[in-house]
Amino acid sequence: MLTLFIIIYFPPRSWTDLKSTSDVNILLRKDLEEFVENIEDIKKDFHQQDKGRPKFSVNTMTTKCFSITASRNWCLRSTFSSSGLRSTVTDLGDGTTIHCWVPKTRKETRPDLLLLHGLGANAMWQWGPDIIPRFVRHFNVYVPDLVFFGDSYTTRRERSESFQAQCVYRVMEANSVKRMRVVGLSYGGFVAYSLAAEFKEAVERVVICCAGVCLEEKDLAEGLFPVKTLEEAADILLPQTPEKMKELMRFTFVKPPVKTPNCILVDFIDEMNKEHVEEKKELIHALCKDRKISEIPKIPQPTMIIWGDKDQVFPLELGYRLKRHLGDNADMVVIKNTGHAYIVEKPKEFYKHLKSFLLPQIPPLPPPPTTTTTTAAATTTTTAANGHANFTNVPPQ
């Protein structure tokens, strides 16, 4: 049973780090200590349910105690809480409520950073322990669940990425954030791009991570993707069976986890993929419907595009297409030997690129002071720092 727990608890890239049973015990003990330390915050988070949803109860807690996925969810909450974030729910007043992790204490000297997740589980699973603890050292971090993910929901019929962007912007406004840097992962990249296009003054910099912003509706029929229809794509991206879950892992990882027991996959599907399935399918359809590159606006903000060279969900060609669309305003980074899930496969390299682009650049030190003496024949510049003299502008004799 411990082996099964480790498979789901630690991402695939961590398995090679577990050299012995003692290593496992150390990791588990550390997470347990964090969990106990932050238990009060976690209990508060569970009680912050949006209107119309069932309240947290003993029965739901009992069910979660027998779910490995739910246990992992609790530990992720502990990681976010111990990283200085707190769980909030914002009622937008139009039938929409958005759950968002926000700083417990916002520091005015730090830039504000918005992280937008992709399809799949909630935001915690996608921005978890490899990214959040690093970012909170440098930024005021905001991590919302997009509509129909986690604890975010709407009764409205809108399904476009523009609607998602407007909801996120209103949450940031409610938290008094006026200027932000944005990172969008996969589906979140579509939302990040729309946010930058619609709210130019609020968005300073954008990172688009493996998001096919420049895809066109005709690309499916023309064979750019491994699948032929949106229905087929949705069945894989929103898996409802262990077989589809394994197919999704083959699409997203260069080296997918092997021999993952079906009971683990069923547990994950039951906990994370059963709610709002039809609504999420509508989100996927809305991305492609009548989409043409000629109608996609060019965002003015400095932009970084990050892609895995073996991405099968959104092939690398879409990254190059976005780079051509934005021109010199965008830099592109290709992470070698990774697929769509490079945030899991190579998190350190991913973070390195994000940090170099998002953090304020420290201006270089000024050159050492110089003294200049001008004569009719020549200009002599003497560098005070090292005593060496350089002679320039000496006319020919």
Automatic annotation (TrEMBL):
<dbReference type="InterPro" id="IPR000639">
    <property type="entry name" value="Epox_hydrolase-like"/>
</dbReference>
<protein>
    <recommendedName>
        <fullName>AB hydrolase-1 domain-containing protein</fullName>
    </recommendedName>
</protein>
<dbReference type="Pfam" id="PF12697">
    <property type="entry name" value="Abhydrolase_6"/>
</dbReference>
<dbReference type="InterPro" id="IPR052370">
    <property type="entry name" value="Meta-cleavage_hydrolase"/>
</dbReference>
<feature type="domain" description="AB hydrolase-1">
    <location>
        <begin position="113"/>
        <end position="351"/>
    </location>
</feature>
<dbReference type="InterPro" id="IPR000073">
    <property type="entry name" value="AB_hydrolase_1"/>
</dbReference>
<dbReference type="GO" id="GO:0016787">
    <property type="term" value="F:hydrolase activity"/>
</dbReference>
<dbReference type="InterPro" id="IPR029058">
    <property type="entry name" value="AB_hydrolase_fold"/>
</dbReference>
